[in-house]
TrEMBL record:
<dbReference type="InterPro" id="IPR002347">
    <property type="entry name" value="SDR_fam"/>
</dbReference>
<dbReference type="Pfam" id="PF00106">
    <property type="entry name" value="adh_short"/>
</dbReference>
<dbReference type="InterPro" id="IPR020904">
    <property type="entry name" value="Sc_DH/Rdtase_CS"/>
</dbReference>
<keyword id="KW-0560">Oxidoreductase</keyword>
<protein>
    <submittedName>
        <fullName>Oxidoreductase</fullName>
    </submittedName>
</protein>
<dbReference type="InterPro" id="IPR036291">
    <property type="entry name" value="NAD(P)-bd_dom_sf"/>
</dbReference>
<comment type="similarity">
    <text>Belongs to the short-chain dehydrogenases/reductases (SDR) family.</text>
</comment>
Length: 267
């Protein structure tokens, strides 16, 4: 079995790679951070896996397509699109509150949404040409969205928007893609104890360990679920809050430390 993972230098991507590493397992790992990627590769090879890694930015559409096709000359069984970034509002520097910077918003959208699509479409192209396995599948693809996609959070506008778009696109595309023998799963989780959130200096309700997150993601993806969500109570709360009038939810959201200028570390 060959499995491709983006964002493999740290966090969930690294956790998935290490969990899947075993003798006879082919792993294809990508990330823009060479040091972290090398560390993941060594850990996986120590567990007996065969690993090929590439330092690559998922925003590079052509480079991603060439890489995925190159690494899938025989077969590609699973893909985990884990590459992503986060960040909040800039520090207060004027009498009038400053919105999210344009360059920051564009970087967020390009990485979290377009970078994920740059992973998805080449993977679909490869998998559609493969023979079905004993379960009738040609492949499985997992996209890393977020619970943040269920809310319009003032502290992270482009992050919420990018994850909302990714989740909706994934879930809406899944039934059509399934007819081709490819299952598509969206993961909408809360705070995961990864390097991405280590710099946060505010309460993170429902913080989940990377190991627990990896278990839930793998279980849901292997079962071919449309959407994997956890913690359940946080997801339910986010969905209920999104049903309320925006000005009402703002009364709560805008008082949170993470919604203040520089409340969340910038990328």
């Amino acid at each position: 079995m060959k499995i491709l993972i983006t964002g493999a230098a740290s966090g969930i991507g690294q956790g998935l790679a290490i969990r899947l590493a075993r003798p006879g397992q082919d792993l294809v790992l990508g990330d823009c951070c060479s040091e972290g990627l090398d560390a993941t590769r060594r850990l996986c090879e120590a567990q007996g896996a065969t690993v090929r890694s590439r330092v690559i930015d998922t925003r590079d559409r052509q480079g991603m397509a060439e890489w995925i096709h190159e690494e899938s000359s025989v077969r590609l069984d699973m893909v985990f699109a884990c590459a992503g970034i986060t960040g909040g509002l800039p520090p207060a520097g004027a009498a009038v509150p400053t919105p999210e910077r344009e360059d920051h918003a564009r970087l967020m959208i390009e990485t979290n949404l377009l970078g994920s699509l740059n992973t998805l479409f080449p993977a679909i192209d490869v998998m559609k040409k493969q023979a079905r396995d004993q379960n009738g599948r040609r492949g499985q693809i997992c996209m890393m969205a977020s619970v943040a996609g269920f809310v319009s959070y003032p502290g992270t506008p482009s992050y919420s928007a990018s994850k909302a778009a990714l989740d909706r696109f994934t879930v809406a595309t899944a039934p059509t893609l399934e007819k081709s023998g490819i299952t598509l799963t969206s993961v909408c989780c809360g705070f995961i104890d990864t390097p991405m959130v280590k710099r946060n200096r505010f309460p993170m309700p429902g913080l989940v360990s990377t190991e627990d997150a990896v278990r839930q993601i793998l279980r849901g993806t292997l079962r071919g679920r449309r959407r994997v969500t956890f913690p359940k109570w946080l997801v339910l709360g986010a969905r209920l809050a999104d049903l309320l009038p925006p000005r009402l939810t703002e009364l709560y959201y805008c008082r949170q430390p993470s919604a203040q200028p520089a409340g969340m570390p910038d990328y």
